[in-house]
Amino acid sequence: MTTTTAPVTLHPRTGRADAMLATLLERRRPGHSLEAPFYLSEDIFQADLEHIFRRHWIFVAVAPQLPEPGDFITVDIGADSVLIVRDDDMQLRAFHNVCRHRGSRLCDEHQGSLGNIVCPYHQWTYDLEGKLIHADHMGETFLREQHHLHKVHLRDLEGLIFICLADEPPADFEEVAARMRPYLAPHKLSECKVAAQVEILEQGNWKLTMENNRECYHCVGNHPELTISLYEHGFGAQPGPQNAEGIAQFEQIVRDSHARWEAMGLPSARIEELDTRVTGFRTQRLPLDRAGESQTMNTEVACRKLLADFTDKSLGGLSFWTQPNSWHHFMSDHVVSFSVIPLSAGRTMVRTTWCVHKDAVEGVDYTVENLTAVWNATNDQDRRLVEFSQAGVASSAYQPGPYSPFTEGLVEAFCVWYVDRMRVSLTASR
């Protein structure tokens, strides 16, 4: 479904601020972390909203959050609030959450259900396709068809919902979707239900949240729950005589697993395009350690009713990362998705959603505690690490440090993508 929206200026910045940003982007040192203003400056935060979050595809929700006609969610990106609804034909639609009368916000709750969209101020009423169907006292010459809700671009990629606030969104999303559908479709996320959703607030810049996600250099010693199910050499490591045998064994396990999964119709090969396209993404299916079934405390499935029509519990973990704000893990028994939403230069919201088969019964097939244990612990640990980083970059002693070429290559890919997209957008807006 393709819809359009008029561009809206979020925050007028001075030419001086743009000049500062351009200078910082130009002198970014490859292979090193960003300079402190990228994490601390409110001007750069506003530029992030304008050039990144308003001009690219942003992951915001999973389709099981809106299972029935009239179900809605709202998503705030800076000053913009977006209303996503499922209409009577089961199509997902997105609109600016703003009444066309005098600008009142239409829905203030994050999630709910409605028959029509009714403005709480003067009761202007819109149907689930965004058409104005009722407006009292506006006179005989008033044209309702000129006052429908402003639409927002939306794409449903096998149950993953992306929106774009730009007037002309990046066209390469269609190619990304075509390449990812064979990976995602077998898990049938749209036939799942939400078993749990948790939001945490990190006192740190959104880029630190994403950089932390893009590496597992920090995992040993910080994530004891997560690393139970992960192979040590899957994190990346500097090769040498001391670990050559372990790396070779892991690589053989990956090859054998890929061959088995590919024969089952489950694409598994790595696609690495985080910094080579506008809609950057990465995917790969990797084996899990020990019981090898799921990202749980005992590495066994968290839900006895498997997704789709799977009969094999050991399907590894399919990871799907998108720039600028998401990562996802698809397993045989559940899917866990993460959406990062910037709130200010030093505050970020991370929303985690766990989905299981729609017919799975809580307390019989799964428990929420077991399903969420690994990532609830990991998210809290990552929150602390991001907050340590935010405090550190604010110090006068901070200087951009070097990334490990063996374990932090994907952090570099994120920074390359971010810097490139900011440069292109900043140049185009002059």
TrEMBL record:
Its cofactor is Fe cation. Keywords: 2Fe-2S, Iron, Iron-sulfur, Metal-binding, Oxidoreductase. Gene3D superfamilies: Naphthalene 1,2-dioxygenase Alpha Subunit, Chain A, domain 1, Rieske [2Fe-2S] iron-sulphur domain. SUPFAM superfamilies: Bet v1-like, ISP domain. Residues 57-163 form the Rieske domain. InterPro entries: Rieske_2Fe-2S, Rieske_2Fe-2S_sf, Ring_hydroxy_dOase_asu_C_dom, Rng_hydr_dOase-A. One of its GO terms (molecular function) is iron ion binding. The keyword Membrane does not apply. PROSITE patterns: RIESKE. Belongs to the bacterial ring-hydroxylating dioxygenase alpha subunit family. This is Rieske (2Fe-2S) domain-containing protein. It comes from Sphaerotilus natans subsp. natans DSM 6575. The lineage of its organism: Bacteria, Pseudomonadati, Pseudomonadota, Betaproteobacteria, Burkholderiales.
